[in-house]
Amino acid sequence: MDKIIRLFLLLLLAGIAVAVWDGFFIVPEGQQAVITQFGAPVGKPVTEAGLRVKIPFIQLVQYFDKRVLICDGDPNQIPTIDKTFIYMDTTARWRIVDPLRFLQAVGTEKRAASLLNDIIAGTVRDLVNKHDLIEIIRSSDWTPDYMASEVQSRDMVAPPKVGRDKISQMVLDTAAKITPQYGIELLDVMFRRVNYIESVRLRVYDRMISERKRIAAEKRSTGEGRKAEILGRVDRELQEITSTANREAIEIRGQADAEAAKIYAQTYTASPEFFAFQKSLESYRTIVGKNTSLVLSTDSDLFRYLESQKRK
To answer: Which of 23, 31, 99, 209 is the most buried (most CB within 10 A)?
Structure first.
């Protein structure tokens, strides 16, 4: 009898321990929980962190994140209204605001991400199909004044009527009306990347290359014109300087010749014989070279001068 009682007590204590162990659960910070019994939700969701109680073994706890989650969609090929095919890569931020409805309608965060991707992709496709490419690429603040001051584009184009940020806001407003039925709050939708498809991208690259070549040729032509202008101005200034220098040289040479003629005249007037003799010597210096033999008569002035110098 005592063994039976002890065994019963041991089983009772074991049952109490297991009940205590499985009868309590902790909701971590940043998490929320839904209690289910035989697969059906029981009671209200637990949204505050702390220690909670449930029926052991019968009731189960499913946890869901309360924090803001990120959903990165797959790139989609979408045509714009001007028939330009582009790849749209979007990202969204969302959170679970009604875990009970989320559990009933979606179940897991992975399925929720797939559902959001479908909702956002469809909304993006509808709105992109209604707008030109420029509306998807450029922001709403690209006004004519901004484009003139910041972009400095030679081929000015009209600013976007809507703009990328407003279109993304329209996507958010449209998709956010659908997500509450799944217990989800959509917080933000952004266009992470917009790119051309391969065939369009090659045409765009060719057009960009042609445009850069045109600009380079224009710059080169302007440089050549500027070069010709500078060289012409340099040649003109050089000719002016050379002409001025030649004129001044002629004037100085004329003044020197006049002064020399004046000195010669004064010298000739003071000693005509010496001047004549000096001119004769200059003539002999010009005529007589290293291998020249000079024959002088005895009555020449030079012979008499040399004889007089020899006697001295």
So the answer is: 99
